[in-house]
Amino acid sequence: DIEEWNGAVSDALLDVLEKQREMQEKLTDLEARSRWNNLRIYGIPEGSEGSNLQEFVTNLIKSELGLPLSDTGLGIQRCHRALAPRPPRDAPPRSLVLCFLEHRMKEQVLHTTWRKKEVRLEGKRIYFDHNYPSEILIRRKAYVGILKELKTKGTKIYELKSTRVRLMQLKT
């Protein structure tokens, strides 16, 4: 009886673990979709934004990227520092999280910064990137070495993107 019960419990546990994995994947997907219009800016020193973060970011993007903007501007819905305790003076600053009203504007800002290659503020380099959930960041870190090796061998960018997709499918 105990052996039968043990087998039934093992099967039930495997089912529950599989369902939990599926639910975690769905949750990560929903979180990624909710961040679709978000953009992160890394490297802006703490306190340099003054009292109005949104105005600071708008002026930074306009001055450094020179985007042709309509009367509505960038369409930044909200922006804030990453939700973490303020770091000590010698630690890297928290990133800025921007939420755009339109995905198209977020992509335009992001691609403009990537084409420019280097954006500086007060002599320090700042970086723009998508706002990924932590699970996706962990997956991306797993294949950074492979991508660097492919790049050093002269592999084209479109090949790297398709490699990323294949690696992501292999991981899951």
From TrEMBL:
InterPro entries: L1_RRM_dom, Transposase_22. Pfam families: Transposase_22 (PF02994). Signal peptide: none annotated. It comes from the Eukaryota. Residues 38-127 form the L1 transposable element RRM domain. This is L1 transposable element RRM domain-containing protein. It comes from Cirrhinus mrigala.
